[in-house]
Amino acid sequence: MENRQWGVLAMVVSGALWIAVFVVPFLPGSAQSRLVAAIILYGGSYAAFFLGGALLGPEAMQQGRRWLRSKLGKPPGTGPTGDEPPEG
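Predicted structure:
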């Protein structure tokens, strides 16, 4: 597999780990063990996300950011994305 495929896979794994965090409260076990499991899943999801972003490259991350902003109804060029229009 090439880096792009690994990056997409890492992003998918990141999403799955993030969703799994919300399942943890319903698992059997002590509160402490569930808390540790949730922390590990949450940290793993972020690590996988940033690994995927590094493998995909900055162009893909900017494209994904633009897509997400369009789905949230925010106009392009607003916010701390690095692609704001020049002042004035």
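Summary: The first helix runs from residue 3 to 21.
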